[in-house]
Write a structure and sequence with these properties.
mainly alpha; 10 helices; 0% strand
Length: 294
């Protein structure tokens, strides 16, 4: 996620130079053709086309932002639930169950990092092994959904604590309730990740935007003359930018500069939970030199 007030110039150029260059070349071709072989440009209702397309793109961008914001809300719930399960483990379990407390807390840190990797289509093995022993990690990593495997292991440890008499059934139910909240948040994230926008929202806005960019210089060349490449390119860029905004926000877990800072949020959970059991915690993550918080 870009956290600076404005994106850096390098970032802007890197994202728009290809469509902008193609659009400018097309505008130049139309302008040269008009002066080399004068023609009467057809009367194109560009205002009507542009207004309709702007509404279409605006609706699409709003839908994409709702997905992005829902993803952020689900990770906010995950942060709170992680703090809750660590606090319950620390306060409910007796002093002689110190290793069980530590196991539950470390498993939760491993869980959120495994979930982050799964959402970004990365291997979670290395992140899980930072917090769990190989024996504990192998059971979870052998499953298709490693994060859910870690959560199941945490539930078994809570049940073991109840069987040993360290917590009662009411405390067990309270801790299981937090695990249910965690599982529900994970399910919501997986739904966002695995369900793209309908193809109508993806294909037709792209098609109509490119058609408008093709028509722009044809409809403007008689009015703008030699200034057509500049005017048409700037106008087309605005539509291409709105189209790109929707593409950037539609998958909040895609590990690009515009997506949610999952690494930073997992680090926040790691700091809070490690400090809750008295361990040394790493520093918070900050933005990189390009102003992107990962």
């Amino acid at each position: 996620m870009i956290v600076t007030a404005t994106p850096g110039l390098k970032q802007i150029i890197r994202e728009v130079w290809k469509p902008l260059a193609l659009l400018f070349v097309w505008d130049v071709i139309v302008t040269i053709t008009y002066y080399a072989m004068p023609f009467t440009a057809p009367s194109l209702p560009l205002t009507l086309f542009g207004s309709a397309l702007a509404l279409f793109l605006g609706f699409r961008s709003n839908s994409a932002y709702q997905r992005w914001w829902e993803g952020r809300g689900l990770w906010g719930l995950m942060i709170n639930a992680s703090r809750n399960i660590a606090r319950q483990a620390r306060n409910f379990l007796p002093e002689d169950a110190r290793e069980m407390k530590r196991s539950i807390v470390l498993r939760q840190v491993a869980y959120v990092n495994a979930l982050r990797c799964q959402l970004r289509r990365q291997s979670p093995d290395a992140e899980v092994l930072r917090f769990l022993t190989k024996g504990d990690a192998d059971l979870a990593l052998a499953r298709t959904n490693a994060a859910n495997g870690i959560l199941d292991g945490t539930s078994r440890r809570i049940d073991e604590a109840r069987r040993r008499g360290w917590i009662d059934t009411i405390q067990q139910a309270a801790m299981e309730g937090v695990l249910v909240d965690i599982a529900n948040a994970q399910g919501g994230m997986e739904r966002l990740k695995n369900t793209p926008l309908p193809i109508q929202y993806r294909f037709f806005p792209t098609l109509f935007t490119h058609l408008l960019c093709i028509m722009l210089p044809i409809g403007l060349v008689e009015t703008l003359g030699l200034a057509t490449p500049l005017g048409s390119t700037v106008a087309g860029l605005m539509f291409l930018a709105v189209l790109a905004i929707g593409d950037d926000l539609v998958d909040p877990f895609a590990n690009t500069p515009h997506d949610l800072p999952l690494c930073a949020m997992c680090r926040t959970i790691e700091i809070d939970l490690l400090q809750s059991i008295g361990d040394v915690a790493p520093p918070p993550l900050g933005p990189d030199k390009d102003g992107v918080l990962w």
